[in-house]
Design goal:
The complex is a heterodimer of chains A (113) and B (118).
Chain A: E1 5-7, E2 10-13, E3 19-24, E4 31-38, E5 42-50, E6 53-57, E7 64-68, E8 74-78, E9 87-94, E10 103-104, E11 108-112
Chain B: E1 3-5, E2 10-14, E3 19-21, E4 24-26, E5 32-39, E6 46-52, E7 60-61, E8 64-69, E9 74-79, E10 88-96, E11 107-108, E12 112-117
Parallel strand pairs in B: 2-12
Antiparallel strand pairs in B: 1-4, 3-9, 5-6, 5-10, 7-8, 8-9, 10-11, 10-12
Classes of the chains: A mainly beta (113), B mainly beta (118).
Amino acid sequence: DSGVTQTPKHLITATGQRVTLRCSPRSGDLSVYWYQQSLDQGLQFLIQYYNGEERAKGNILERFSAQQFPDLHSELNLSSLELGDSALYFCASSVRGWGETQYFGPGTRLLVL
Amino acid sequence: AQTVTQSQPEMSVQEAETVTLSCTYDTSESDYYLFWYKQPPSRQMILVIRQEAYKQQNATENRFSVNFQKAAKSFSLKISDSQLGDAAMYFCAYRSAERETSGSRLTFGEGTQLTVNP
């Protein structure tokens, strides 16, 4: 157990819908990262937050957004869902925002029908 | 941009034997970190080992060790005394050590699926 929690574990929804994925980092970690793992794209970095502020952006679609709250948990919002958004979404956390190891949560498996 | 390449999509090893998984990367940076993560069938991403580029000594964690060749940009993982529980997808990952760049992200290779035969 990495100490990073993600909810829900599984999500099934329809195209065009909107979902919210939630992540709680390890105690004491200030930085949260979101990654997407799909069959065709592999593991890709989406976005990073550090102590409530956006720190780095990767291949995140405009339909996707994220935020980190004062209690440091983070949410990833996916809207206007398409079949191709079906993937495993991981949250990871680290103490600060650079250099140190990232610890991953168990992931949320999203299936868009 | 940094890239990570794992040229072995699949590998297999007999229980108790040793196996080496390959990883190469491309970067223009001098300071960075390299990682091996394991993803078993549960899909959880588990850190196996970490190497700082400024350290010449290869990292070891129990049965897991790396061969880090900075000039060759190579970072292989050796698993000794392989166990059934080692069966998983293994990902090599790169992370910049530069604080102010967007390099705080992990860049992953495509993964190597390791099978352990009893």
